[in-house]
Amino acid sequence: MTLDTAIHRFLQDASVGSTYTRRTYRSALNRFRMYAQEQGIDPEVAQVTVLNVDLLLNFATWLLNEQYAHKRTMQTYLSGVMSFVRFLFVRDLWQISPKDMSRLTEGIQRLRRNQKPPALVPHPPPLKEIQKLVEAARAVQVEVGDDRGELIKCRNVSIMETLLSTGLRVGELVKVLRKDLDSRDHSLWIRGKRGVERQVFFSAEAWDVTQRYLKLREPLDLARTRSVGNLPLYCRHDLGAGPRMRGLTTQTVQGVIRKLAHVARLEDRGITPHALRHYFGTRIYQVTGDLAVTQTAMGHTSPVTTRIYAKLNDRAVRDAHKKAFPSGK
Predict the structure, then answer these.
(1) What are phi and psi of 181, to 5 degrees?
(2) Inter-residue contact 16 to 22 (CB < 8 Å)
(3) What's the rounded Cα separation, in Å, for the pair 1 and 12?
(4) Cα separation of 269 and 272, whole Å?
(5) Measured at the alpha carbon of residue 139, what is the angle toward residues 136 and 144, in degrees to the nearest 5?
(6) Which residues contact 158 (CB under 8 A, 6 or more apart)?
(7) CA 327 to chain centroid
(8) Residue 142: other Cβ atoms inside 10 A
(9) Residue 45 backbone phi and psi in degrees, to 5
């Protein structure tokens, strides 16, 4: 089996992970193909037997010295390549001795430790910027009789309010169906990363505008032969959507937030749907001071990920600075 055939088979296998994971691994393996070609290996012709420990470990050196890869990028690429070779090994498509596999695993672990990127500290938008975004969404002018424009406006306000009050990842948001909504406590259950389920709650504003959006959409939903409950919570309403109720993509939602940021004159702030999730996490921790509650609300699998919100709320440095420089002196 050639390298290219093996890579294609790996990326097509459902067990590899989500669409996003496979897309990330594709980027890693495309870079590995470039590296192999520079080593005189043609992936279209070379068999998987060409893979060996030194070739795989030296990929990291090539990324650093030749590609000037960021540490975080290198970690991602190494993860993709290791998933690929494990896939081949488990399916008996690539032979390697236990000793060499041990050397490869230990070498990759050592590289990851030595090149571990610094922890990212999120910088959520301040409340004033959040308010400007919501105001921009609500202030969109729609001509009288423009039902499509009114639907899009109401949908976008709902998206903003929902992201802010639920902390949903954008990838989770676009997967929500109408039947997932629970009117009893204005919530929904979502399955997030690694299959972790959690219940998220809507604010009063988010719930009300979402119900208004669905009410406006009702004639379109009822015209479909598909069960209304199985329709996406958020749909396209542009002219190119056609008669079907097509769900939004993550890119569409990102575009909505980007356009609202432009209207609110906040385009230079780099506000994204994930920044709104950071705002949610920060608010939950500020109110509760409880990392466990924040972890559950965010759907994190590890408390280590949640600790960044404790860092953001640490007032010790701020208080010390005020004492050292009273009145700004």
Answers:
(1) -70, 135
(2) yes
(3) 15
(4) 9
(5) 145
(6) 206, 209, 210, 212, 213, 234
(7) 42
(8) 14
(9) -115, -40
First CA to last CA across the chain, in angstroms? Answer: 70
DSSP string, 138-185: HT----TT-HHHHHHHHHHHHHHHHHHHH---HHHHTT-BGGGEETTT
Whole-number Å distance between alpha carbons of 67 and 186: 49
One-character DSSP codes across 11-58: HH-GGG--HHHHHHHHHHHHHHHHHHHHTT--TTT-BGGG--HHHHHH
Q: What is the CA radius of gyration of the chain?
A: 24
Q: How far is 84 from 78, CA to CA, in rounded Å?
A: 10
The candidate with the shortest Cα–Cα distance to 77, out of 110, 33, 41, is 33
Interhelix angle for 273-288 vs 291-298, to 10°? 150
CA 47/CA 1 separation, integer angstroms:
5
pLDDT by residue (tens digit) across 268-308? 888 999 999 999 999 998 888 888 999 999 998 888 888 88
Can you list the positions of beta strands (E) in the chain? 181-182, 187-191, 197-201
Task: Give me 284's structure tokens.
Answer: 């939950």
Six-digit token string for 261: 């940021």
Cβ neighbours around 27 below 10 Å, total: 13
pLDDT tens readout for residues 123-147: 788 899 999 999 999 999 999 889 8
pLDDT over 70 percentage in the chain = 93
CA-wise closest residue to 35 among 88, 1, 78, 95: 78
pTM assigned to the model: 0.66
Tell me whether residue 292 is exposed, middle or buried, using C-beta atoms within 10 angstroms of its C-beta: 0 to 12, 13 to 18, 19 or more. Answer: exposed
In the chain, DSSP finds a helix count (H) and a strand count (E) of 14, 3
CA-wise closest residue to 277 among 311, 300, 247, 251: 300
